[in-house]
Write a structure and sequence with these properties.
- The chain is of the alpha+beta class.
- The chain has 2 domains: about 120 residues, Beta-Lactamase (2-Layer Sandwich), CATH 3.30.450.20; about 170 residues, Reverse transcriptase/Diguanylate cyclase domain (Alpha-Beta Plaits).
- The protein is about 35% helix and about 25% strand.
- A hairpin with a 2-residue loop joins strand 9 and strand 10.
Length: about 325
């Protein structure tokens, strides 16, 4: 740790002050890391390890410009290379806040809220910057719901998502609300592209990791009242309540973009995983078989048109 990183209290020896600051920052719930003016990472707290999956030993001394966390925005723009809030703050001295998606060590995308500010010496000279970030997940998977799913065997054991049995029950509720109270809902069906190749080339354990990565990306990036589940095999289903066509289409495309911008590190190889999507609103005369048949046809239209795309029908 360089001497410039911390400005020690006059009543403490410098080493004691630095150790105190380290201990305090390791106890906060937000991820915290410091960089110098070259964006070299100088400090990485315990919460940063937990939120990203990367230990301090793996990142200290490297540059955040090396795209370690591969921050992207809603449109998939790579912020580490173009539009980094931390870099911009060091250039103009202005603190910033942003909602971005970091790339977890396990391959999935985690939404985080980041805050950046400069570090200055007693003369006002900037010698680095600090970024704090916290989990910005709006997923509905609170502890009580997960426990309930486990108790009644409604949880998919591999991905941790709702299984098909649970999804069937949700459809019953959504159709009842739709008919009695005109409450709209839509569905998104996604299928991992070329999934068989992951199994055949890298083994079924890597195939399982691919499914887990997709599940986490979906689970962390849907709304609290959306239900995300594993429909079967490499297919995932989102039942989106209280929505409309444009919002459903936007949600499906955001999930597609986040998948496209994710990488899974498996057996010293970076695997690029994409998915094809079908999305549709429920119609007044629909029942579950009709709705699933339609969204399935939309999904396979995406497959036929080149994969890694959303085919939407309102």
């Amino acid at each position: 740790m360089t001497n410039a990183l911390f400005q020690p209290d006059l009543m403490l020896e410098q080493s004691d002050s630095e150790n105190l600051y380290r201990a305090l920052l390791d106890r906060v719930a937000d991820g915290v890391y410091f960089v110098d003016t070259q964006r070299q990472i100088l400090f990485w707290n315990k919460a940063a390890e937990q939120l990203t999956g990367y230990s301090s030993e793996e990142v200290l001394g490297s540059s955040c410009a090396d795209n370690i966390l591969m921050h992207v925005d809603d449109s998939g723009t790579c912020l580490c290379q173009n539009g980094c809030p931390l870099s911009a703050t060091m250039q103009d001295g202005q603190p910033r806040e942003a909602d971005v998606y970091l790339h977890h060590r396990d391959g999935y995308r985690l939404p985080v809220h980041v805050t950046t500010m400069t570090m200055q010496d007693r003369h006002g000279r900037v010698y680095g910057a600090v970024e704090t970030f916290r989990d910005n997940t709006t997923h509905m998977s609170d502890l009580e719901r997960i426990q309930k799913l486990e108790e009644v065997a409604f949880l998919d054991p591999l991905t941790g998502l709702a299984n098909r049995r649970y999804l069937d029950g949700v459809f019953v509720s959504r159709f009842a609300e739709h008919r009695r109270h005109d409450m709209s809902f839509g569905v998104i069906l996604a299928d991992v592209d070329h999934f068989k190749q992951f199994n055949d080339t890298h083994g079924h354990d890597v195939g399982d990791q691919v499914l887990q990565m997709v599940a986490q990306t979906f689970a962390h990036n849907c709304r609290p009242y959306d239900i995300v589940g594993r429909w079967g095999g490499e297919e995932f289903l989102v039942i989106a309540a209280y929505t409309n066509g444009p919002d459903l289409h936007q949600l499906a495309d955001r999930l597609r973009v986040l998948m496209n911008n994710s990488r899974l590190r498996a057996k010293k190889t970076d695997l690029h995983v994409t998915a094809s999507f079908g999305a549709t609103m429920a119609h007044p005369k629909d029942d579950m078989p009709k709705l699933i048949q339609r969204v399935d046809a939309l999904l396979y239209r995406s497959k036929a048109q080149g994969r890694d795309r959303v085919t939407f029908e309102e």
